[in-house]
Amino acid sequence: MVQLLPTGLTASVAVAASSANLGPGFDSLGLALGLYDEVIVETVESGLVVHVEGEGAGQVPLTSDHLVVQGIQRGLRELGVDVPGMVVRCRNAIPHQRGLGSSAAAVVGGLAAVNGLVAQLDRPGLSESQLIQLASEFEGHPDNAAAAVLGGAVVSWTQSSGEGAAEQVTYAAAGLRLHPDIHLFPAIPELRSSTAETRMLLPEQVSHRDARFNVSRAALLVVALTERPDLLMAATEDLLHQPQRAAAQPESAQFLQLLREHGIAAVLSGAGPAVIALSTAAELPAEVLEAPAARAFTVAEMRVGDAVKWNSGVVVPG
């Protein structure tokens, strides 16, 4: 039997942006970034009201189609509860359609808000593994979702059982301790890109040689991120998705090449068009930042992001 939550409950969430793939770790490796969306949810007598400030304002739906609302509704169903109505307020800092995990953050934010609501009734909420599973079901892959849930760097994976309509897909992840000497420099353009569209550029099959190359680099990247940042250049090489996306994102490809030519381990952030540089230096070379290829991007150091935070009735700072 579904329990109806009372009116007057409030919950708030802070959820981080994320960068996925990190070069060779396609749909597997992810990294939370210190840029946060905030979600505030209040239960009311009836209806649905959605307010959006910041990124996406005037562009995203203010209905049940909003990803935060969908995340809330999915979390409520999972816990066997419901609300008579709700007001959802979104304060967005994560740019949309730049490869920084805005959609994963929205879904995780909605799911986590449910935890803040049910905590006021002394009911258990969604576990970390449930948050990763449910958010990844929206995404179809767990790298961004897992980073948004766990914070820091993550390795994620997918397991399938059954076939056809009976197929069950399980998403899971484990956190990594990012080496303290690694500095993160996201480069964010005004240009937008659709992940669904850029995925269509990827071939259905790859050669054994290219697969072997990426397996070795992804394994090496785990070592570089945690213990040996001096290996980042070799560890961030990729053959499976970045070259294929270059023609559709020429400015990103050009800036990525410029960074790597200067010895800076740089990769597309997710499907792009944002680029992220990982460096043991405290700042990027001036000749890189002043180059023509850098003009389309806003580049600034950003700390690694924290795990999703939720609270009851209090706004959680990022």
Estimate what percentage of residues fall within beta strands.
25-35%
Q: Rounded to an integer, what's the Rg over CA atoms?
A: 20 Å
The major pleated sheet works out as: 7 strands, mixed
Structural class: alpha+beta
Q: In CATH terms, what is the fold-level topology of the largest domain?
A: Ribosomal Protein S5, domain 2
Molecular shape: globular
Distance between the termini: 36 Å
The CATH class of the largest domain is identified as Alpha Beta
Note poorly predicted spans. none
Mean pLDDT over all positions: 94
Oligomeric state, counting identical vs distinct chains: single chain
Could you say how many structural domains there are in total? Answer: 2
Query: What's the count of strands?
Result: 13
Q: Counting H and I runs of at least 4 residues, what is the number of helices?
A: 10
